[in-house]
Amino acid sequence: MTVHLILASGSQARRELLHNAGLAFTAEPAGVDERAIENDLPADKRTPEGIAEQLAIAKARDVSTRHPGAMVIGCDQTMSLGDRLLHKAADRAGARATLDALRGQTHHLNSGVCLVRDGEVLWSHVGIARMTMRDFTDDFREEYLDRNLVCILGSVGCYQLEGEGIQLFDAFDGDYFTILGLPILPLLTALRTLGVNHA
User: Fold this and answer.
1) For residue 18, what are the contacts with CB-CB under 8 A and spacing of at least 6?
2) Between the CA of residue 168 and those of 28, 77, 103, 140, 157, what are the distances in Å?
3) How far apart, in Å, are the Cα atoms of 49 and each of 55, 56, 65, 155, 158?
4) Catalytic residues
């Protein structure tokens, strides 16, 4: 039986990862209020990892309600610096503040992914990557913002590792696909287990 696979995300990077892996799917962004979901979570789920997982599930469930029988991939990523959860910057001043907070520090990217069918969570996973940003100069920061502001406002850490954002880092420890926002290796394993990805 052919299963309709849907990515509940508008992320170009996630679409490319699934496409490059040879999966047949459609993409439909979810329409959820992320901050409201985050605020309504019980205390034991309100960790950076828990928020990423629960937002991924909420997005997949939202899309699942419109597509009975489809297998929906939900994804979300949070960024944490110690106990502090960071969100996307709204403008240049916010991007500058984010970069200044991360400069010379190690932060975590927490990438949640799940599979939902008819509102039921069949599988979920959170991948974690440790990212160490170098202590770059103020001049470099401003030049980087000049060249990249439009594209980085859509990224929680104000960088895209697959672009010039790589210049901000000394090191990272973790799966590259987790950094891009989709831990694809465990996802592919789960899809095979569920009979959706035949390989």
Assistant:
1) 7, 25, 73, 182, 184
2) 32, 19, 8, 9, 11
3) 10, 11, 25, 17, 20
4) 76
pTM of the model: 0.88
Strands (E), the chain: 5-7, 26-27, 71-81, 84-86, 106-117, 120-133, 169-173
Q: Say yes or no to pLDDT of 193 above 90.
A: yes
Q: Which amino acid is at 60?
A: A
Output the pLDDT for position 76. 94
Q: What is the pLDDT of residues 20-57, one digit of tens each?
A: 999 999 999 998 888 888 888 888 888 999 999 999 99
Please say whether the beta carbons of 83 and 89 come within 8 A. no
Query: In the chain, what are the domains?
Result: 5-193 (3.90.950.10)
pLDDT tens digits for range 96-118: 999 999 999 999 999 999 999 99
| CA 135 to the chain's CA centroid | 25
CA distance 76 to 9: 9
Between CA 94 and CA 88 the distance in angstroms is 8
